[in-house]
Amino acid sequence: xxxxxxxxxxxxxxxxxxxxxxxxxxxxxxxxxxxxxxxxxxxxxxxxxxxxxxxxxxxxxxxxxxxxxxxxxxxxxxxxxxxxxxxxxxxxxxxxxxxxxxxxxxxxxxxxxxxxxxxxxxxxxxxxxxxxxxxxxxxxxxxxxxxxxxxxxxxxxxxxxxxxxxxxxxxxxxxxxxxxxxxxxxxxxxxxxxxxxxxxxxxxxxxxxxxxxxxxxxxxxxxxxxxxxxxxxxxxxxxxxxxxxxxxxxxxxxxxxxxxxxxxxxxxxxxxxxxxxxxxxxxxxxxxxxxxxxxxxxxxxxxxxxxxxxxxxxxxxxxxxxxxxxxxxxxxxxxxxxxxxxxxxxxxxxxxxxxxxxxxxxxxxxxxxxxxxxxxxxxxxxxxxxxxxxxxxxxxxxxxxxxxxxxxxxxxxxxxxxxxxxxx
Length: 424
Ligand SMILES: C[S@@+](CC[C@H](N)C(=O)[O-])C[C@H]1O[C@@H](n2cnc3c(N)ncnc32)[C@H](O)[C@@H]1O
Hints:
This protein is an alpha/beta fold. It has 2 domains: 17-134, NusB-like (N-utilizing Substance Protein B Homolog, Chain A); 220-422, 3-Layer(aba) Sandwich (Rossmann fold). The chain is built from 15 helices and 11 strands. The strands form 2 sheets. Strands 4, 5, 6, 7, 8, 9, 10 and 11 form an 8-stranded mixed β-sheet that branches. A 3-stranded antiparallel β-sheet has the order 2-1-3, with no helix packed on it. Helix 1 (17-31) packs across helix 2, helix 1 (17-31) packs across helix 3 and helix 4 crosses helix 5. The chain is globular. Residues 1-10 have low confidence and may be disordered. Bound molecules: S-adenosylmethionine. Residues 222, 240-246, 261-263, 266, 287-289, 303, 305 line the site of S-adenosylmethionine. The site of S-adenosylmethionine has 17 residues, from helix 11. One of its GO terms (molecular function) is RNA binding. S-adenosyl-L-methionine binds at residues 240-246, 261, 287, 303. InterPro entries: MeTrfase_RsmB-F_NOP2_cat, MeTrfase_RsmB-F_NOP2_dom, NusB-like_sf, NusB_RsmB_TIM44, RCMT, SAM-dependent_MTases_sf. The active site is at residue 356.
């Protein structure tokens, strides 16, 4: 008698596997395609529950923070080095980042990555992981930075800055809030007026004053450019404004703010922030290389797009994907944006230029080029009393925030900031 065709039993997926698959896609996007982690997240984690999306992001971020350490461990346990783009290396990086960095039990860390190499070198991955766990390996206390970063930052800023950068990625950064109104939050410290600092990992929506819009999240370094503009009234242009921390500061300081940005999705967050805080902004979605304001403004802030290497603590992908070609491309865009912004400042008014970059091409060299082309502008030196205690401007009155700044208080992002006055 003929048997009816057998239906194969549905394959049950290893629990936790979707998050690891998404982590693998994220790492591939950053390391092979040069995308930013946040930019790759929606597509890599498509269809995942929010908790799995969060886990995929945490695994990928931990892997990127510790990549040279992970690779050194893997290489110490293989006879022939695995190619850098081999799937087995990616699977091992993900398993080890979880076991050593995120506290995932060893059996779960390996069980959830083996299916990533199905039909491939499962035995090798299992063997290398097992060898390392038997050796009871740990991450070094201070992470090792990628060679290209060590070379570049040592050349520009010296050894102390490189050491400070390595220390800075060992632990998650604190949470900084910029205050619209005074508020007490338990456990918070204040490093400058209208600022509170909370422990890393603090849950933002659960903090008092969130719904009421009493504050917004903003690293203390990122709050300095708008602080330098001082109080209104008057017209202020915030160029490259989204998601809007600096626009909110300017509106809170009494300026009539026009916020311009090219990104609709980032402007949606700016609008939400404006609604939540009740701080009014005129919002314009436009490419600043095309757009023109109707009138010149007293204050113009250009927080220009950049390589973002100054925010490596929160976005460790920049340590691996920012190459000299990207820095050059960003520096060229900044020059074009600065040239346009310069036209929109009233004589006697001010232009603040900032980038969250640790590359001099996007800071010191940018300013030097601008001043050589604009003899109607001069640096308006930043004064000590305008800055949080412990931060000092440089001789010529600009600000260069390197890794190591405010280290005893939990550190801050890397930035370049210059305030210019239009003299003619
Ligand atoms: C460093 S972020 C700005 C952060 C913002 N100032 C804040 O404090 O929240 C740079 C911004 O430049 C915007 N941008 C890049 N190219 C632009 C262009 N050609 N015109 C307008 N905005 C642009 C990006 O969309 C991004 O939001």
